């Protein structure tokens, strides 16, 4: 059963509409903007009411809640899929706590470069891979049991607050010690400590997973995603093009017998020449996630690294410092998110 009230609470309509690229201005107690559902050019027929409902007084002449808006905007036919997407992206939206309007504009105009297929092939085709990552790892875990506790002790010394999740929507922030014994069963962790137990989300709701209460970056994680998807299901011209290029590369690798994990290894080995690589975690899907040590570095200096990573196939969501990433040696649907590479000498020191 879908709990619509819960979804509306998690994904505030106004923030969601803004995240779709609509700029809203105050109109009495309502908000008003150009309706993206009928690609409105003149006028501003979309109204958002204080009770989190919308109505297009123009061509659409329809309205509803955030779920209906998302479904129409994404042109989704499957309600369940819409809800899943909404909750996935809703977490992102609620993480943009205390972000004022000018920041939102700055974020959306932040340029993420196009995929550099030539560079990706250059890096992957020489055949560097998993074996090299493993070989170069100062710590090699040879048993199949979880070393999550040991890894987290080294990544986060000094009993800081850590935000960890069983799922994207079930999470808690506790000091490190109260987590002891449970980490091996968890899927997610915020790769930076939390400043306090909870903070306010943009919707002014108290949450134990808010960007506001996330400390400065200690680690920047890079997640590659080379899974093939229907480009026609992707919204936005640039994103469509990116997905088409990714599909082509993934098919080439498939024909050449290069696994996605091998390819990701080669890409992380390249990134590791730019920033200290602390660990590499297998997503228990097909991807490998790298943790890079960045403490004390300003975002201005890190952004070019992130942009380069994006150009060779990384997901940019991990640029948000409160974004959940895979728990090292945690568990995903019964499968171990194994740590392939671990260099404690590159981790933070107190
Ligand atoms: Zn409309």
Features of the shown structure:
four-stranded antiparallel sheet; 34% helix; globular; 350 residues; binds zinc ion; 2 domains; five-stranded antiparallel sheet; DNA Primase, Chain A; DNA primase, PRIM domain
End-to-end distance? 47 Å
Order of helices and strands: HHEEEEEHHHHHHEEHEEEEHHEEHEEEE
* CATH-scheme architecture of the largest domain: Alpha-Beta Complex
Strand order of the largest sheet: 1-2-3-4-5
Indicate the structural class.
alpha+beta
Q: What is the mean predicted local confidence, pLDDT?
A: 87
Write structural notes for this entry.
This protein has twelve helices and 17 strands. It has 350 residues and is an alpha+beta fold. It folds into two domains: 4-95, Zinc finger, CHC2-typedomain (DNA Primase, Chain A), CATH 3.90.580.10; 111-350, DNA primase, PRIM domain (Alpha-Beta Complex). The strands form five sheets. The protein has a five-stranded antiparallel beta sheet, covered by helices on one side. It has a four-stranded antiparallel beta sheet with strand order 7-6-8-14. It has a four-stranded antiparallel beta sheet with strand order 11-13-12-17. The protein is globular, with a radius of gyration of 21 Å. The relative contact order is 0.14. The protein binds zinc ion. Residues 35, 37-38, 40, 45, 56, 58-60 line the site of zinc ion.
Task: Provide a quick synopsis of the model.
34% of the residues lie in helices and 17% in strands. It is α+β, with helices and mostly antiparallel strands and 350 residues long.
């Amino acid at each position: 059963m879908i709990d619509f009230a819960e979804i509306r609470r998690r994904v505030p309509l106004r923030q969601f509409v803004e995240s779709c690229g609509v700029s809203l201005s105050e109109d009495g107690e309502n908000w008003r903007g150009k309706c993206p559902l009928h690609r409105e050019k003149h006028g501003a027929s979309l109204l958002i009411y204080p009770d989190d409902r919308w109505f297009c007084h123009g061509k659409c002449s329809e309205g509803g809640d955030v779920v209906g808006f998302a479904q129409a905007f994404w042109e989704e036919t499957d309600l369940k899929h819409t809800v899943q997407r909404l909750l996935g992206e809703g977490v992102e939206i609620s993480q943009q706590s205390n972000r004022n309007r000018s920041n939102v504009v700055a974020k959306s105009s932040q340029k993420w470069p196009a995929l550099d297929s030539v560079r990706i092939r250059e890096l992957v085709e020489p055949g560097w891979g998993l074996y090299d990552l493993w070989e170069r790892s100062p710590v090699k875990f040879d048993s199949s049991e979880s070393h999550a506790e040991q890894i987290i002790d080294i990544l986060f010394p000094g009993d800081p607050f850590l935000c960890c999740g069983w799922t994207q929507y079930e999470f808690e922030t506790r000091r490190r010690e109260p987590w002891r014994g449970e980490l091996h069963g968890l899927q997610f962790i915020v790769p930076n400590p939390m400043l306090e137990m909870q903070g306010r989300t943009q919707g002014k709701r108290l949450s134990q997973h808010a960007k506001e209460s996330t400390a400065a970056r200690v680690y920047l994680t890079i997640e590659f995603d080379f899974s093939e998807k229907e480009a026609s299901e992707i919204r936005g011209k640039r994103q469509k093009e990116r997905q088409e290029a990714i599909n082509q590369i993934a098919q080439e690798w498939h024909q050449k017998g290069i696994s996605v994990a091998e390819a990701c290894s080669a890409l992380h080995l390249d990134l590791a020449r730019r920033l200290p690589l602390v660990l590499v975690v297998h997503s228990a899907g097909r991807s490998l996630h790298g943790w890079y040590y960045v403490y004390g570095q300003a975002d201005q200096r890190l952004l070019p690294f992130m942009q380069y990573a994006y150009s060779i196939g990384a997901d940019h969501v991990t640029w948000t410092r409160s974004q959940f990433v895979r728990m090292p040696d945690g568990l995903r649907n019964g499968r171990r998110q194994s740590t392939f590479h671990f260099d404690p000498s590159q981790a933070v020191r107190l």
